[in-house]
Amino acid sequence: MGGWKLWQRKPAETGAGKVVTPWQGIMAWLRGDPVSTDPAMTTADYTEMIKERAREVVRERRAILDRAGLQTPVPNASMGLACSGGGIRSATISLGIAQVLARKERLLDFDYCSTVSGGGYFGSFLGSLFLPDGVRGPETPGSQMKPPSDELSAKAHFAQSALTDQASLTARNIGTDAKPRWIRHPVRWLREHSRYLAPNGTSDLIAAAAYLIRNWIAMIYVLALPIALAAILLIAASFAMADYSEPTQKRLKDETSEVAKADAAAKGRIADMLYIEPKAPPPCDCVQKPKSEAGIILSPVWLLAAAAAFLGLSVGVSYWLTEYLSDRGSALRLALRKVTPGKSLDRARAWLDWLGNPTVRITLVILSAGAGTVAAGGLWLWLRRNANLWINWRGLDVLMGSAVALTITACIICILAAWQIGRSTITEIGKRDAFTPEIRRILTRWSSDWLTWVLIIAGVATVDTLGLTGFAWIRAASSDASFFAGIATLAAPLGAWIINKLPSWFKDGSGTLSRWIGRYLWTAALVAALALYSLLAVSIHIGIQYLMFGNQQWAIPGRFAPLSRFGDVSIGTVMLFLGGIVGVLFRFTGASQGFINLSSLHAIYASRLTRAYIGGSNMQRLALKDPPGTLTRSERSIMESDPQDQIPIHVYQQTRTAAPIHLINVTLNETRGADKSQMLERDRKGVPLVFAPEGVFMDTAKLVSQRTHFRWDDLKKYGVETLSLGQLCAISGAAASTGMGARTSLGGSLALSFANIRLGYWWRVGRMIQEADGINPRWKARALVWLLGTITYFYLAREMRGLYTRDTAYINISDGGHFENSGAYELLRRNVQTIVVADNGADPRFLFSDMENLVRKARIDLGMAVVVADREEVEALIGRDGAALFLNGSDEDWRARAAARSSDGLAASPKDAAFCLLLKVHQRPWNSKTGAFEVEEKLTGHIVWMKPRLFEGLPVDITGYATEHPSFPQESTGDQFFDEAQWESYRALGYSMMKQLLERSTHKEDILREINRSEGWNIVWPKG
């Protein structure tokens, strides 16, 4: 820890030349002061250093290509492939695209492959296909970080040939003719395990159901512990206020002494006040059933809610008292300055200046508030003593007493606000004449805080009231079968009516309920979540009462409740014992740091993705026991784990191969920034987090700093949790979770937490980010978490509220598509000249929303203008034949053209073969010599945006599948269970799209190289 390191060092210069002694280091660590001692280089210098490291990584890759005889004439780092989110659909289409590129010997033109979500499935398969066997598996001290060059070359040729093989090939010989070594074909493995979530059918679904149920029960157990502990405390409070003597009214009748009557009334006053008796039925001549024995039992927490409401009202009243803090003499002072100086005027000016001093104003407020309070209290007492002047109305007494109390409290609050400001910054604020506005700002914030507390306390009081009343009603109705018979009588027709209405409510997504939920999804989720949590809390509350009191009424005033339970054991002892057990369970459960991830859906999602996609390049998993032509059987099936599937991400990223450099994009959920405000991030609620060979980039734009970039050595230094490639592949595809970037909401987080639909991951980064930002947690928070052991509840509470920051030891990361779904954002940031985007996200209306999001963020964050090229520009760049494949420049809008379909649904249009969109990228290039951006904006690159759609010339099996499935190729991303026909249709569609692009233009397979040739668009692009 930073403070501990300072404590170990001798006094030295830290930060901006500040001497830190060991004691000062300890105190800085406890206070949470920044402790960075290393002078940081300038952002421009650091950016240039990272750029040079990126260029070095590309040169290392190109050297491997040269040794393998796979050279490419494309300039270094000028081309990148972006595979978007979209689940298994995106992975399968991207595979088809890569197969054509490999067959045309153009795949290795791309130095980068940037992936998001489902595109990461394919990207992980592609990168691991080139990875030598020696670096696979869990990291050990003998792990090879730099495999031999001949092994890298052999893997490069193997990967190329595996991608170019005919789809019908079932096995490959990776040995020699004399000593063959047969493996199942990697692409065949992917096809056969397209149902990666349940590859073995029903048995896998049962196993997944068992996993989900087990984790959900564990989640409910963890949530139940603090609820049970709170219920015990609330029940104890009600028990302490309960009146176990005879009913109050009966005591008043029996007592003869006035003192005794008053004493008897006082004994049950609180309990009587919190109890609402059941309403008696109206008198009639018929035979009446006895009145119900249970009324409504109010929680004593309502008294706290009333007190909180009173304080909130006092804060509101105190706002208006700030009128007397304003400088009344300012106008007069300005007028006197224009008058000829004189001795008396000098005294007047001095007096007015003294009156305008903030300290004097505070003093005057205190004196005036005190005088006003004394006057109000005196008037109230005088009226009470003079019966002849006192109006015979008890409410007036209460009203005036409340007014006096409100005035006193409001004055005290106003004084506290003034004192909070005045004690530390009174001089500076006085100079700026901002003293009074600052007090008003604080009072307004306090009003908001008190309103929040009133709502929270009222919610607790409501649950406690429902629990107390529910237990009393159940006990009262337990001997009355008609109570439950009545419920059953009402429930049966109500259930039948709901079942009858369900079809019309949903009705293929167009029903009333479907439309309402679609429009108010997160509001409905919030209401449902609050109802579910309340139901859980009330159920636990009633259960605790049953454990304490058994079948006997106890909270109704005047009802005798036994003072012992379980023989001679008192109720107080039972409460202490039960509270102790729950407290111990709460303490040890809360201290379990691994629960937050073990209880989520991440583990099962990551394991099955790993076995399906990274296992597809694992030679041990693909190895065949029997030669082809016989009954082939794999050494290791997808149902079994294999150590070779586990590839640590830092090993994967630091091992250079011939594969395109894999950039893995995830989202760091952040709903509250360092300024403790949501104003800046309230729309995005997340920042990009990229895992690359240079390290981890966080919230990085054009310039890189030590606060936004962490080297792999930094992660090792701070003991950051090691993630595997499969884990990161799952995190990048964690679409459904409590943190979803811009879609994060309180209702969604509460509902998804209760249902335990949590695919996101809490990544333990320790103090790495905190020290980079100069942040230390306060010592009080450290001590509280350590003493109470509440780390599990700390992070679960953040998930439930959708409250995420980067300044904690664990950060929440999820689907990269929650920030930007195409994968092109990081390529633009790296100034990649030509980007091919496989836009495979579900877009049934062809709105191109992912493209619009990229354009918007590129303009705001990167200073780049991404525009759609004109038809003439496309033809001039790639020729008329190639332009026919692009949506640019048609008579109608390119969105409408992309969405058009023929009447029979066999193709988008009988003659329209366009499926690409050419975009131009303009920016102000960075001049490394001057250390600044150039003034003139230039055309610096292009984006070829490929949108999956039906077009003329597709194979008959694809058009046939589209006829049976009208939503193809934009089926829901939620469908992750592809059968053979569905998987092959998407792969073949991606294959056909890229094949058309590389064959139907004038430049044939060189069309992308031609677009990348900067000389063709009058731009001088630096080489190498």
Task: Describe this structure in a few short sentences.
53% of the residues lie in helices and 9% in strands.
Largest sheet: 12 strands, mixed
Q: How many individual β-strands? A: 22
Mean pLDDT: 79
Poorly predicted regions: 1-20, 29-38, 247-252, 264-268, 424-432, 676-680
Strand content: 5-15%
Radius of gyration: 36 Å
> How far apart are the termini?
41 Å
- Based on secondary structure, the structural category is alpha+beta
Number of helices: 38
How would you name the oligomeric state of the polypeptide chains in this document?
single chain
GO biological process, one term: glycerophospholipid catabolic process
GO molecular function, one term: phospholipase A2 activity
GO cellular component, one term: cytosol
Keywords: Membrane, Transmembrane, Transmembrane helix
Q: Care to describe what's here?
A:
The chain starts with a helix and ends in a 12-residue tail after the last helix. The chain is built from 38 helices and 22 strands. Among the domains are: 2-31, no CATH class; 311-454, no CATH class; 478-519, no CATH class; 824-1017, no CATH class. With 1024 residues, it is α+β, with helices and mostly antiparallel strands.
Give the tags.
38 helices; 53% helix; 1024 residues; alpha+beta; two-stranded antiparallel sheet; PNPLA domain-containing protein; disordered N terminus; single chain
